[in-house]
Specification:
mainly alpha
Length: 158
């Protein structure tokens, strides 16, 4: 069953500080941080391989699918600690972790495209941001469906 933590209770359970647990923080936030760094490093490359032709599909299909999957994973990795209230988080983030994870993933996608505009050989594309947003939406939609199947109430549709 999905755990529900709210506000101060969540911060007490997983806050960082004299009474916080760094191992717990690293366990939940570490994968999201590593994934975000990986996305940044990939977007800093002047050119990435375009394997679509090798598989007999359009490079655009491979590109947009890769974008969607990458940001679906990012949204899910960010949702994990938010849902458990790990770290010092505002009450609204703890109350709505799916929305907060989605918003973070989309904001990161937008920042990533702005970053790419300054990388030689790369361009910024709102189509990429749209693919990223669709991936994040699919991931958070799947989380919502799974939580409903486990009996979580939809108070605010966490």
């Amino acid at each position: 069953m999905v755990e529900l933590n709210h506000g101060a209770q969540a911060r007490e359970a997983g806050g960082i500080g004299p009474t916080g647990d760094w191992k717990r923080w690293l366990w939940y936030w570490g994968p999201a941080l590593i994934w975000a760094i990986g996305l940044y490093l990939a977007s800093a490359q002047p050119a990435l391989p375009r394997p679509g032709e090798r598989f007999g599909v359009s490079d655009d299909v491979v590109n947009y699918t890769t974008h969607a999957l990458s940001y679906a994973v990012l949204a899910w990795l960010v949702w994990r600690p938010l849902q458990r209230g790990v770290g010092r988080l505002p009450d609204v983030v703890v109350a709505l972790p799916r929305w907060a994870a989605w918003l973070f993933a989309v904001a990161y996608a937008l920042a990533d495209e702005i970053h790419q505009a300054f990388v030689p050989g790369r361009t910024a594309s709102l189509w990429d941001v749209l693919a990223d947003a669709l991936g994040a939406t699919a991931a958070m939609g799947l989380v919502w469906v799974m939580s409903r199947r486990e009996g979580e109430p939809c108070a605010g549709c966490r």
